[in-house]
Every structure is written in structure tokens, then in C-alpha cells.
Amino acid sequence: MNDATLCPACGASNACSLADPRTATQACWCYGVSIDASVLAALPPALRNKACLCPRCAQVLDQLPPDEPACASTDS
Ligand SMILES: [Zn+2]
Question: Potential cystine with 53: which of 41, 46, 58, 60 (Cβ 3.0-4.6 Å)?
């Protein structure tokens, strides 16, 4: 059973925008980062090209913009 929204390495959500109908028109985070070839090479062949890795397993967390604060307007 393959779920395109789950990381094949750890089973967490990979936050792939293409796998979610609500965000499928947006470019996935993975387009904006460069994943080390050794990370991909370490995956078993059966897991490659099935589903996206999550940002943590792809080791690109430091390349992603920080999350937007949920409540940023505090200027009162
Ligand atoms: Zn993962």
C-alpha cells in the first residue's frame, strides 16, 4: 500500500504539495531545495520514485523557510 503523502523512510507526512489536492497547484518544497545524492542513494531502490521523502529525512530542513507564525499580528 503506497501513500504518496507519507515519507517512505519514516512514515511521517512528507508535506508534498503535489500529493494534496488543496496545494497541488503549488510547487512542492522539494523544488526549492537540493537533496544530497548520498541521501537518495541510501534509500532502498524499492522506495525511490514512489513518494517524496519528508524534509527531515531528505536533510533539507535548514534550506526551508521557517514556518509562518500562526498569529503574527500583535501590533495593538
Ligand atoms: Zn521521513
Answer: 58
